């Protein structure tokens, strides 16, 4: 029964793609997906994000997610299928609090996309290819302190992030951990270098 599926472990199963709707029956109930050590790409992560609206934990370590990753917001249409809508990012992994994306090939653009996740608290992007800070982020001072904002969409950049691991980037990062901390503002623990 789909409602009995709250956790799925696909570690090392050698999958190289996710069919659209593959998790749709279990999506309302799935809270944790471990899909490490497969061949999933940026498009597969985008498909998961549009489908797994209740997932709180996701492990996509050691896959093939790269800097082409973009968030494709979705909403349910009247037929129950997912329809793409570029209006709001709130429906893309709205409940996700922990993301392990280490050992992929993500760069600054993918990091900027992950910054749009509304509930993300812990992010591990160690062992990726993040060389620079996302170019379209800026920081501003408000009454609560420094917070990152996507200057194009006015979306708060990592609004709830408390832990970030950016260590072991290849090639080496062209920014320092203090510069990253200043750009993100509210992140309590940043691991890097």
Beta-strand fraction estimate: 15-25%
Radius of gyration: 16 Å
Largest sheet: 7 strands, parallel
The count of DSSP E runs of length 2 or more, i.e. the number of strands, is: 12
The secondary structure category is: alpha/beta
**Average pLDDT figure:** 82
SSE arrangement, N to C: EEHEEEEHEEEEEHE
Instruction: Indicate the percent of residues in helices.
Output: 10-25%
Distance between the termini: 45 Å
Count of helix runs: 3
Commentary on this structure:
The chain has helices at residues 42-51, 108-114, 177-184; strands spanning 7-9, 32-34, 57-59, 74-76, 82-84, 98-100, 122-124, 137-142, 145-150, 155-157, 163-165, 189-191. It starts with 6 loop residues before the first strand and ends with a strand. It is built from three helices and twelve strands; from the N terminus they run ββαββββαβββββαβ. The protein is α/β, with parallel strands linked by helices. The strands form three sheets. A seven-stranded parallel beta sheet has the order 1-2-3-6-7-11-12, covered by helices on one side. The chain is 13% helix and 22% strand.
